[in-house]
Structures are given as structure tokens and as C-alpha cells.
Amino acid sequence: MLIVLHLARGASPSELARFLHVARSTVYRVARRFRERGFAAFADRREDNGRAGVGQMFLLILRRVVAGCPRDHGYARPTWTQELLCRVMHAQTGIRVSQPTMSRCLRRIGARLGRPRPVLPELWPNRRQKRRIRVIRRLIERLPAHEVAVYADEVDIHLNPRIGFDWMLPGQQKRVVTPGRNVKRYLAGALDVRTGRLCWATACHKRSALFIELLRRLCRRYRQARRIHVIVDNYSIHTSRQTSLALLELPRFRLHFLPPYGARFNPIERVWLDLHAEVTRNHRCATIEELMDEVHHYLRYRNQRPSPLCSPRAA
Known about the structure:
This protein is α/β, with parallel strands linked by helices. It folds into 3 domains: 2-45; 58-108; 143-162 and 179-303, 2-Layer Sandwich (Nucleotidyltransferase, domain 5), CATH 3.30.420.10. It has 11 helices and 5 strands. It has helices at residues 2-8, 13-20, 24-37, 56-67, 82-93, 99-108, 126-141, 208-221, 241-249, 268-280, 288-303; strands at residues 147-158, 184-192, 198-203, 227-232, 253-257. It has a 5-stranded mixed β-sheet, sandwiched between helices. The longest helix is centred in the middle third of the chain and has 16 residues, at 126-141. The protein is elongated and about 105 Å long.
């Protein structure tokens, strides 16, 4: 259209080609088409391409394919690529598209390149899980005044820091010096459902002795309690023979087990997340002793501002 307008104003083909950065043959071809077809020459003739190959049905099938896995279609690769999607969609629909077209189709269906969320297998049916959680919640709601209930769990403390997000200036990346040789400590904690206070024990190994030491500390803390209910997961140190023998000497304790892989039902996991956020993530401690001092300091500080898990009426 610009070529026709400038020619109508008297511009020469050479000047017009130089001004619009096109070849002179293009100017002559456009002028000839306009003389022969009039304003119809301005159409880009895409209407003659036929029916569009990528329609709503193509997009619906693409959504189903992306939601699955390449292994569902006979490929060994576990993740999708645009090239593989083009190949699978051609087999599914008979329509062959290029990778740029596939990229536009993925945007149209709202697909994004993201990191999958790891989940644990559910060994129990959903109904059985809910039934077990109802029993534990009913125990907490009807807990007598002379009894105590705690959620217990263990956490690993690593000298090599956990790397996490932090604010940085443009063009800069913060550095966290790692000791190189990792050293571990293990912490077992018990969270009181009434007061929200934490009782904990530490050890160099994650064995039954760590859990038994936690039980003994609970026994000393709650001397007046007639019964202490400890809600735990199915980790082996909670059901070992050594733990079973220790429980014979501690008759006030009753263990209540959460569903397998039921960490989301244990409120003490929130405490461990806060511990990593406040202390262990991106830490700069040179020794494990220095790091454990900060861990103990944080837990003591947290016990000064506890948050109960149940209301006094429910307790």
C-alpha cells in the first residue's frame, strides 16, 4: 500500500526502493498487481491457504497429551520437548506442525515449563487416612486436664548449608561458603498441643536412643501428667525393639501413629520449616557446634512465644 501511495505521488521506483529498503523488482511487481487487480492486490492471499490445521480439536488433544507423559505414547523419555510433541501430535491428529507453531499452541492452552512437585506414594486409602486423623483429632479435643498430647518428629541439621532464595542487587549473586565436608546432627522434638511449647533432644546419630531420650525428657517435664500421648509417624526408631523395651519402663506413654507418609498431618513439620528458614538456610557457621548453638538459641526463643495448637475449651 505504501508503494502504491508513493507512486501515485510521483516517486520514482528507484527512489521508492531506496526509501522503503526493498528491491526495485518488488516495486514493479506491486504496481503491476495493482493495475491488474485494483484494491484486491492489497490482500496477502492467506485466504487461499485452505482450512487452518490447528483448530480447537487440535488444542484439546494437545492438552491431553501435555498432561500425560511421553512413556504413555511409547517413548522412553520421561519429559516433553516441543519436537517430541510435534511428532506425537502428528501421530494423534495427522497434522504436521513446526516447532514455532507448537510453541504458539502451548501458549494458547496455557502450558508452561515448570518444575514438577515431588509427592510420596499413598499406601493407605484416602478413607482410612481420614479415619485415623479423626481418631487423633478426637483424642486431642477430648484430652483430660491430667493428660498431655504432643506431636513428635525428627529433623536433620547439616553443616553444609541449605541454599535458599535471598534478595540480591542487579548483577550480583551472593555467595555462601560451604565447609565442604558435611557434618550432621539430629534433633528430635515434641510439640505440646495445649501450650505450643517444644521439648527436644539432640544426638550424633538418628537411632532409637534419640527418640528414647526425648521420651525421658518428656517424662521429666510432665511429672504430674497421668498419661502422655505421643503422636508420631511410622519411622523405624518409633517401633524398634529398643523403643518397645523402653516403653515398658515408661508406662505413662501411649504412642499414636499417623498414616504412612503423612508428614502433612504433623504440625511440628511447620516448626522444622521455620527452623531451616531462620537458622540453617544459607548459614555461615564454620563448625557444627556453632550451628547447633544457633539452633538451640532459636528454639529457646520460640518457646518464649508459643502458639497453642488447640483452644483451652477443646483441651
